[in-house]
Amino acid sequence: MNWSILSIFMMVLGVSVYAQGGGSGKPRMGGPGSPCFEDRQKYCSDVPKGQGRIRDCLKENLDKLSPECKEHLDKRWGKKKS
């Protein structure tokens, strides 16, 4: 009985960590709470998630992004990537 409870707990914990960005410690690209959230909504709201499409959209609009978002992306991408 105890092993089944432990197994269920570990499964729920794993799903929870995965849903929150994999536990990488990096803020999500344009999710709520991200410095790029408003910019993503403004410039990339019609872009579907996955395969780097949000990243590419933000790069295409780099000159229009807020200073906070640009700083966040510089840190995330390891200084200016154009």
Automatic annotation (TrEMBL):
Classification via Pfam families: Cys_rich_FGFR (PF00839)
Cellular component terms (Gene Ontology): membrane
InterPro entries named among the record's database cross-references: Cys-rich_GLG1_repeat
Top-level taxon: Bacteria
The name this protein goes by in its record: Cysteine rich repeat protein
